[in-house]
Amino acid sequence: MRRVIGFALFFIGIGMVIALIAPDGIVMVLIAAICLLAGYNLFCCS
Questions:
Q1: Which candidate, 15, 11, 13, 7, places its Cα nearest to that of 44?
Q2: CB 32, CB 13: distance < 8 Å
């Protein structure tokens, strides 16, 4: 289950990075970074 949640969070983070084309500033970057890090840790780390 942790791998599925990590996979989902990782790709939510990737989607948010792609959405950075919009001029919303630092909040979007922080949320994307948190999702990427949490997703990576849940998916790759045991």
A1: 7
A2: yes
SS (H, E, C) 25-41: CHHHHHHHHHHHHHHHH
Domain coordinates in residue numbering, the chain: 2-44
In sequence order, the 6+-apart residues with CB closer than 8 A to the CB of 20 are 28, 29, 32
In whole angstroms, what is the distance from residue 30 CA to residue 2 CA? 22
Hey, what amino acid is at 33?
A: A
What's this model's pTM, rounded to 2 decimal places? 0.58
Q: pLDDT confidence of 14, banded at 50, 70, 90? A: confident
CB 38 within 8 A of CB 9: yes
